[in-house]
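Case 467 in the screening queue. Each case pairs one protein sequence with one candidate compound; here the compound is arginine. For every case the pipeline is the same: read the inputs, emit a complex structure as tokens, and attach any notable structural observations.

Predict complex for case 467.
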Amino acid sequence: MAEQLWKGRFSKAVDSRVNDFNSSIRFDARMIEQDIQGSIVHSEMLGRQGIISAQDVEQIHAGLASILKDLRSGALEIDPAAEDVHTFVEQTLTARVGDAGKRLHTGRSRNDQVALDIRLYLRQASAGLQQQLRELIETLCCQAEQGAGYVMPGYTHLQRAQPVTFGHQLMAYAWMLLRDLGRLRDATARMDAECPLGSGALAGTTYPLDRFYTAAELGFDAPCGNSIDGVSDRDFCIELTGAMATCMMHLSRLSEEIILWCSWEFKFIELDDAFTTGSSIMPQKKNPDVTELIRGKTGRVYGDLNTLLVMMKGIPLAYDKDMQEDKEAVFDAVDTLSLCLKTITPMLATMTPLPDNMRRAAAKGFINATDCADYLTKKGMPFRDAYKCTGTMVGACIDAGKTLEELTLEEFRSYSPLFDEDIYEAIDLTRCCEGRTSYGGPTKASVLRQVADVRQKLKETGGHSHE
Ligand code: ARG
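Case 467 output:
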């Protein structure tokens, strides 16, 4: 069974170490359903074109259907000694239906076959990731809706800067992830545009193949325009992994934020016990391992992208065996991102925001200092002077261990006669936040609008044929 398809020319068996080294079955077996799908369409086309007989087509289809059925039921196991998934399917088919099985590979090479299989596999994987991303984005929308009015400090340089809302901050991630969804969709649409099947080994074939038929049947817009490019293009692996790496970067930033927020130093949120772990020695510990693992795994996906880019940069046209390395990298990226999405979504859904702590932190950071300066400016003081005056006040407050809102009106007036009773309203945290009414800002209304806009965009992009 575990014989090479290409044995004819050789007088000696291949060294077992080379066999093991060369074999890809342990990682390409996951494409077996796609391999069968491609073979069904290829043989159908061979029959339609009169290249093989209708009877052969019938036997091939029956054989492939039985293989698929037995695989799914567990009656057929993949032979780990086979060179690759293509070899395994063809040899199993031939063992079951005889000569018709040997005709399946007419006008085809494993080079165009594998180029097709990875595309078909990634089409499905991308659809799965897109669905997971949608669920994560919706989870963020739900939390943002609930936290639309929770005032918290917004940070620059990780220093308290200006007041925002919890919902505002969460929606920033929703917009990032929406772009990730777009990138996956774009890359998938480009991958689905051109079908490599029929490129042969590299130079096409003398058989009268109908490449337009197979392309359409397999869900592509058209056959690829150049057979050399068809077998040697792995741009789609790189593009998709690039999109996945970017998405991991976003998940990692969000994870870092969660790690900070659930620390005692911040305590803006509480993670559900079911999504944290303890320490074997420190009884008080409740650790955000999920987010730390996501942060850690991000490097892995960057590594996958790097593997693909470096693998492709020096190989001459057309197919070279280096390209067999594409699969482990792109599969690892898919598996890693999928695993992270699967875990982070319920973790976020069950997290409890602690708005009182957020507000307390916002009150302490002089994040209403800009608003105090704006108050003076609106009363006629030039902004630069108002900035300086407020700076002096903040300095004095820090020395006295006070916040701006704790100053008496008299104390305010000692800095400028422009201060009046209404200063307290002007520097009230909720007011400061709600006053930032510019489009895309932190107000409750703006957050709710963002939630609605993001949901609308999810809806508009749902159910597209490329998913
Ligand atoms: N396992 C191979 C791969 O993944 C299939 C293509 C083999 N082609 C060849 N010319 N040896 O790339």
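Case 467 observations:
- Residues 110-146 form the longest helix (37 residues).
- The first strand starts at residue 151 and ends at 156.
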